Amino acid sequence: MNIQRETSGHIAAIVTILIWGTTFISTKVLLADFSPMEILFYRFLMGFIALILVRPNMIPFRNWRQELLFAGAGLFGVTLYFLLENIALTYTYASNVGMIVSIIPMITAVLAHFLLEGEKLRLTFLIGFISALIGLLLITFNGNVVLRLNPLGDIMAAGAALVFGGYSIFMKKLSAYEYHIIELTQRVFLYGLLFMVPALFLFDFHFDLSRFSSASNILNMLFLGIGASALCFATWNYSVGVLGAVKSSAYIYMVPVITIAASVLILHENMTWIALLGGALTLLGLYISEMKPKAKLMENGCKMDA
After folding, report:
1. Considering only Cβ atoms within 10 Å of each terminal Cβ, which end of the chain, N or C, has fewer?
2. Burial letters 128-137, b for 16+ CB under 10 A, else e
3. pLDDT for 76-118, tens place per residue?
4. Any idea what DSSP says for residue 31?
5. 34 vs 6: CA distance, rounded Å
6. Helix orientation angle between 104-115 and 273-289, rounded to the nearest 10 degrees
7. Cα-Cα-Cα-Cα dihedral of 159, 162, 164, 165, to 10°?
8. Cβ–Cβ < 8 Å for 23, 43
9. Where are the domains of the chain?
10. What is the distance, to the nearest Å, from the Cα of residue 64 to the centroid of all Cα atoms in its chain?
11. What is the 3-state secondary structure (H, E, C) of 215-245?
């Protein structure tokens, strides 16, 4: 892989995660005036319009297999992921959601093992999975018993992590077509918005623009729509195409650190030792799951020397 191209892939992933790590805060603020479905629809409508303005070209229809990949990416990465995440934030802390969605790299690795050409699951991965699972159980226990939060929020956050892992697989497959990254993101957003239409009638959605009279609501929605959606999906899709689904997803390890810091500083959320221990075990598990066996590395080194 070209070093310059790989470096740009890492930079794109870092920029994306730095912004995504604070989106939970903006969403939590907007939930005071908007329903989860309203936030989801408005932010991606704004993001889609922004992408069209930047690059008016649209990808033409090629074949149904390709369209199914676009539809799957839109359903998993836009509609389902953010709907589950937004609903989760109505039941639990933003910091909890940030820690729980950090299992996305682990889920992506499992899916990539079966659906993409990748490495086989190792013993270190299984050990890391157990550690992360214990950490997630502690986070849920902390919210349910100590902070009196509804565990449904933590469960839905875990569901969001699962569907985003599926989104990464779809995007890796779509990257093989080598479309312009903005045009690719446009198509994904279009399908995401189409899948939202039936949900608008099922969930609490009201077309009331008076709520945008608040400067706070306007700024937070613009941040989610232009920054976290239009910009970040383009940079993330580029990163997945360059680095691969598993390697790019590893950057999601940074999300809970960013989210927890922002939650405590901005939202003044409570943080107990149980939640911190759970978060530490989750991150430790994720780190262990990514460790490469030393024996294998030494063996590869010997072969290179030979």
Report:
1. C
2. bbebbebbbe
3. 999 999 999 999 988 888 777 877 887 887 788 888 878 877 5
4. T
5. 39
6. 30
7. 180
8. no
9. 3-123+150-268
10. 26
11. HHHHHHHHHHHHHHHHHHHHHHHHHHHHHCH
